[in-house]
């Protein structure tokens, strides 16, 4: 489904931050990406989502055979790519409900489907609110404005639940969540798992992976995937830290 | 990226067409004769001619004001035409007899002059160049005692009311443009709502400047008697022309005891082309007087057009406990310049005012907020809250804030908040990541920024404002 080959990228004309990432994700799989601060995890997510601040300097990325890197960010979203932001953005004056309905309808339109009206959408929302245990009143508030850190993260998962992506990339969605919220978010993600979608979970903590059990764990260091393994790799990392993983001097991915 | 944001604000002006119609225009230039000719054409009483002449003489002693943060070539007042009326077979006939060319013009503008086709609940006075060409729903309003007609008709049919109130809020000597207007005003709308009556529908005037080199100098006078309520809307467009056109209007509002006047404007005069050629010079004096206790005057404006906007809808808070409000969105793009804001003059006790100003600047546009809050010595317990936010789109535009605050009573509370932000690329990307196109993302962010003002607009206008800003309006607005 997702096929990343030797992907390299930088920001602001500097040196490459991603120095050749290769990663294959099949439908139905959950991949965890771990690694020290500043190793390039968010950069990978942003580059896949098409943030124009990042410049791809080499390699390729396809989703279901389509060249992701040639698409506008919204086209990637239409193709089923969703990224839960590490730092969700505030949009003052735009209600959460209106924003979500617009997003939902834009994606439907891109697939030649009819738009839903506000009433129909309310029904859709009700089910999904329950999934992340969010108050309906949150829908009337401006997008993320004045939300607590945890509320912002839950709001990301709410959006994912509504938009039903084919590929979801969750960038540290667990950071800043209390224990209950962590469980709710993880359960939400698990309920949305289907054989035809896939999830990439970026996290620092093994505890999330107790809830969302990954099929593969990858360690990113200095812009490269330096180790991949099964779910037990996360446990090992938790125990030993990152130091024991040798960063190859000139690894060719 | 910012260039495509700019493209979005750069949509074609839709109302730039010209109506080819014979006009009864007087010669260009301005002198006492001009004033006399206009007055004679309108068959005015002697007192009104005298008032005009006093204004004219005063005007000749005044200098064009240049304290605004706007730049333009000197205006030659002698090349302007001060009166132009479409020649129609039956200028004062009923609505059904409106000249087909004029009807077609208003149809194109989306303002059908047939009552059965009108937006439900909006009565319209259509002003074309210097004269009113039709007013709808008059009879229905008359049953409630509401007078809604052109100012010219009001002078003939309700001379006592006009004489009592004309110039009572904006005297003929008030300022350069107000004096000019007082001398040569041609037409405009007149509204009187009797005691205790609530206007059953929105009253509106639609101003259209058509003729070349012709200034529009309309005057609007709205009176809400004790306990009355009226909501009034004003819309305006003009053809694309390569020379500047002058628009110097005066609006006077009077709210008696416990009366409310709500005045909303969507100003979409032609703004000039991308190089700053042509466009309307909009020099307007708008002022309301809360004459009685517990009265309220609320201005809401969405200013998207004009090459230059110079306007400060103000409220004189004379009655105790009276309330003044000013909600404004001003958008400038290309070479547009806006210097706009308000004055809240607190004279009575426990008077309250709220100012919410949202300035959006794109292209090389320059947007200034200028506001004065004055609290007089007798205005014990007066309160003002001002919020003044600017949004910048691109790097070549400007936003400025000039607040003037004078407090003469130490029990007053005056609060001022201001912010300037750039439209955030992170915000745009966030919305795009959710499947929303960049254009719609910008629209949504701008709409969110303007929300506090849009929610004050009547529904019909909120929709128009949405289209004007090229934005997707908040579902909650209205
Ligand atoms: N927009 C940017 N401008 C400048 N530098 C950037 C930008 N984005 C990322 N970087 C740099 O790229 C490197 C990788 O950052 P990235 O955010 O991808 O790390 P991360 O693995 O997600 O870290 P964390 O675990 O702290 O979230 C860092 O050195 C960071 O400073
Ligand atoms: Mg990160």
Question: Mind explaining what this structure looks like?
Answer:
The complex is a heterodimer of chains A (about 250) and B (about 475). Chain A is α/β, with parallel strands linked by helices and about 250 residues long. Chain A has one domain: Rossmann fold. In chain A, about 35% of the residues lie in helices and about 30% in strands. Chain A is built from eight helices and twelve strands. Chain A is globular. The two termini of chain A are about 20 Å apart. Chain B has about 475 residues and is an alpha/beta fold. Chain B has one domain (about 25-420). Chain B has eleven helices and 23 strands. In chain B, the strands form three sheets. In chain B, strands 5, 6, 8, 10, 11, 13, 15, 16, 18, 20 and 22 form an eleven-stranded mixed β-sheet that branches. In chain B, strands 4-3-7-9-12-14-17-19-21-23 form a ten-stranded mixed β-sheet, with helices on one face. In chain B, helix 2 (about 30-40) runs antiparallel to helix 3 and helix 6 (about 150-155) crosses helix 7 (about 160-165). The chains are: A alpha/beta (about 250), B alpha/beta (about 475). The interface of A and B includes residues 53, 88, 97 and 163 of A. Bound molecules: adenosine-5'-triphosphate (ATP) and magnesium ion. Adenosine-5'-triphosphate (ATP) binds near residues 17 and 42 of chain A. Magnesium ion binds near residues 86, 171 and 172 of chain A.
SSE blueprint:
The complex is a heterodimer of chains A (253) and B (478).
Chain A: E1 2-11, E2 16-25, E3 30-34, H1 41-49, E4 54-63, E5 66-67, H2 73-78, E6 81-84, E7 91-95, H3 96-110, H4 118-131, E8 142-143, H5 149-163, E9 167-171, H6 179-191, E10 198-202, H7 206-211, E11 216-221, E12 224-229, H8 232-240
Helix pairs in contact in A: 5-6
Chain B: H1 2-9, E1 23-25, H2 32-41, H3 46-60, E2 84-86, H4 100-108, E3 122-128, E4 131-135, H5 138-143, E5 147-150, H6 151-157, H7 159-165, H8 176-184, E6 189-193, E7 202-208, E8 219-224, E9 229-237, E10 244-247, E11 250-255, E12 260-267, E13 279-290, E14 296-303, E15 308-311, E16 314-317, E17 323-332, E18 337-346, E19 352-361, E20 366-375, E21 383-392, E22 398-407, E23 413-422, H9 425-433, H10 438-454, H11 459-468
Parallel strand pairs in B: 3-7, 6-8, 7-9, 8-11, 9-12, 10-13, 11-13, 12-14, 13-15, 13-16, 14-17, 15-18, 16-18, 17-19, 18-20, 19-21, 20-22, 21-23
Antiparallel strand pairs in B: 1-2, 3-4, 5-6
Helix pairs in contact in B: 2-3, 3-8, 6-7, 9-10
The complex binds adenosine-5'-triphosphate and magnesium ion (MG).
The site of magnesium ion has 5 residues of chain A, from helix 1.
């Amino acid at each position: 489904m997702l096929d990343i080959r030797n992907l390299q990228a930088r920001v602001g004309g500097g040196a490459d931050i991603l120095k050749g990432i290769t990663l294959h994700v099949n439908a139905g799989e959950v991949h965890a990406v771990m690694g020290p601060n500043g190793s390039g995890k968010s950069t990978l997510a942003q580059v896949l989502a098409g943030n124009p601040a990042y410049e791809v300097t080499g390699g390729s990325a396809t989703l279901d055979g389509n060249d992701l890197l040639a698409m506008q960010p919204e086209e990637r979203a239409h193709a089923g790519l969703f990224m839960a932001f590490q730092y969700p953005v505030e949009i003052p004056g735009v209600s959460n409900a209106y924003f979500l309905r617009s997003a939902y309808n834009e994606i439907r339109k891109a697939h030649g489907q009819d738009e839903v009206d506000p009433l129909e959408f309310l029904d859709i929302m009700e089910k999904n609110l329950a999934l992340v245990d969010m108050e309906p009143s949150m829908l009337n508030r401006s997008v993320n404005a004045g939300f607590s850190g945890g509320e912002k993260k839950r709001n990301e998962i709410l959006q994912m639940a509504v938009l039903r992506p084919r590929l979801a990339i969750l960038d540290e969605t667990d950071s800043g969540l209390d224990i209950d919220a962590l469980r709710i978010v993880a359960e939400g993600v698990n309920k949305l798992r289907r054989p035809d979608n896939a999830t990439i979970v970026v996290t620092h903590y093994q505890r999330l992976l107790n809830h969302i059990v990954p099929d593969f764990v990858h360690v990113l260091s200095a812009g490269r995937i330096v180790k991949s393994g099964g779910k037990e790799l996360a446990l090992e990392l938790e125990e030993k830290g990152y130091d024991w993983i040798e960063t190859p001097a000139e690894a060719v991915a | 990226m910012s260039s495509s944001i700019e493209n979005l604000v750069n949509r074609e002006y839709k109302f730039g067409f010209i109506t080819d119609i014979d006009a009864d225009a007087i010669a260009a230039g301005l002198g006492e004769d001009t004033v006399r000719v206009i007055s004679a054409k309108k068959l005015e009483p002697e007192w009104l001619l005298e008032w005009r002449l006093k204004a004219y003489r005063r005007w000749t002693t005044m200098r064009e004001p240049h304290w605004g943060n706007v730049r333009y070539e000197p205006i030659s007042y002698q090349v302007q035409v001060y009166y132009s009326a479409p020649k129609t077979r039956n200028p004062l006939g009923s609505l059904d007899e409106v000249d087909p060319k004029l009807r077609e013009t208003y149809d194109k503008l989306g303002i059908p002059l047939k009552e059965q086709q009108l937006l439900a609940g909006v009565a319209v006075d259509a002003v074309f160049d210097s004269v009113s060409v039709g007013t709808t729903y008059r009879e229905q309003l008359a049953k409630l005692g509401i007078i809604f007609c052109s100012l010219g008709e009001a002078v003939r049919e309700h001379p006592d009311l006009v004489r009592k109130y004309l110039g009572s809020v904006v005297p003929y000597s008030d300022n350069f443009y107000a004096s000019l207007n007082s001398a040569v005003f041609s037409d405009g709308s007149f509204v009187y709502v009797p005691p205790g009556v609530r206007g059953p529908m929105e009253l509106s005037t639609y101003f259209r400047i058509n003729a070349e080199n012709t200034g529009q100098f309309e005057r609007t006078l709205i009176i809400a008697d004790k306990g009355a309520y009226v909501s009034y809307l004003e819309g305006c467009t003009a053809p694309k022309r390569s020379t500047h056109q002058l628009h110097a209007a005066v609006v006077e509002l009077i709210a008696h005891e416990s009366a409310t006047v709500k005045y909303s404007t969507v100003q979409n005069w032609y703004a000039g082309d991308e190089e700053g050629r042509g466009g309307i010079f909009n020099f307007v004096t708008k002022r309301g007087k809360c004459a009685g206790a517990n009265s309220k005057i609320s201005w809401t404006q969405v200013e998207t057009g004009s090459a230059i906007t110079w306007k400060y809808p103000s409220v004189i808070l004379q009655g105790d406990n009276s309330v003044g409000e000013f909600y404004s969105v001003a958008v400038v793009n290309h070479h547009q310049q806006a210097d706009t804001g308000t004055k809240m003059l607190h004279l009575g006790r426990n008077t309250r005012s709220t100012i919410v100003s949202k300035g959006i600047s794109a292209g090389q546009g320059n947007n200034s907020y200028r506001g004065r809050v004055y609290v007089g010595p007798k205005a014990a317990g007066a309160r003002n809250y001002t919020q003044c936010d600017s949004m910048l789109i691109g790097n070549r535009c400007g936003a400025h804030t000039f607040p003037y605050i004078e407090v003469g009573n130490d029990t007053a509370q005056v609060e001022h908040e201001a912010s300037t932000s750039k439209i955030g690329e992170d915000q745009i990307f966030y919305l795009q990541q959710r499947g929303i196109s960049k254009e719609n993302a910008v629209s949504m962010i701008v709409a969110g920024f303007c929300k506090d003002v849009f929610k004050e607009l009547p529904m019909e206008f909120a929709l128009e404002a949405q289209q004007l800003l090229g934005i997707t309006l908040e579902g909650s607005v209205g």
